[in-house]
Amino acid sequence: MSHIDFGELKNDTNFTSIVNNFSKSLDEIDAIITEAINYKDYDELTTEEKVKFDNYLAYTTNSLYWMYVKLNGLDPNAHGIKNELSRVRQSMLRDKQIHERNTIRPVLDKSAAGRFIRHGLHDRSNRDEEHENENEELMETAPPKPLNKKIIFDNDSD
Questions:
Q1: Are the beta carbons of 67 and 57 closer than 8 angstroms?
Q2: How many CA atoms lie within 13 A of 34 on its CB side?
Q3: 55, 88 Cβ separation under 8 angstroms
Q4: Percent of all residues in the chain with a pLDDT value above 70, rounded to a whole number
Q5: What is the 3-state secondary structure of 93-136?
Q6: How confident is the model at residue 1 (pLDDT cuts 50, 70, 90)?
Q7: Which of 43, 60, 99, 127 has the fewest CB atoms within 10 Å, i.e. is most exposed?
Q8: pLDDT (tens digit per residue) in 36-49
Q9: Residue 152, by phi and psi: left (phi above 0), alpha (psi -120 to 50) or beta?
Q10: CA-wise closest residue to 64 among 42, 109, 32
């Protein structure tokens, strides 16, 4: 699978599989970073895509350097790389907040808002007058009532 000379440890299958897996992972990381660095369409990206791309590259590079410091036996928490990683994380969080603010904001239903405002601004006297006007208009369009056939006279004996 790989061309690593394990010497005396070639019979230790656990060790060789771990080293081969690590080597394969390094090759994949190298290919991905090389592809990202040589990306030709960067100028055609939108501003939001450029920010995401730059954050990705910065976080990847700083994470790899953190691993390098750790593998060399140094304490990465005492090294300046810890501050750089936290700075990139803050930048990524800020980008996420901006994205959410632009995409997850509430949408106003204008017709419903207009009805709420209209009902809230009307006072009772105006509303009664409007109903009377509506009733008058209905009465004008309705057919006339038939006349009462029975006429009752009052017998007043004064």
A1: no
A2: 6
A3: yes
A4: 77
A5: HHHHHHHHHHHCCCCCCHHHHHHHHHHHHCCHHHHHHHHHHHHH
A6: very low
A7: 43
A8: 888 888 889 998 89
A9: beta
A10: 32
Distances (CA, A) of 134 to 3, 36, 77: 93, 71, 79
- Residue 46 is given by DSSP the state -
- pLDDT interval class at 103 (50, 70, 90): confident
User: Domain residue spans in the chain?
Assistant: 11-40, 43-103
**Helices H / strands E in the chain, number of each:** 5, 0
At 148, is the secondary structure helix, strand, or coil? coil
Q: Which residue has tokens 């910065």? A: 58
Distance CA 108, CA 118 (A): 16
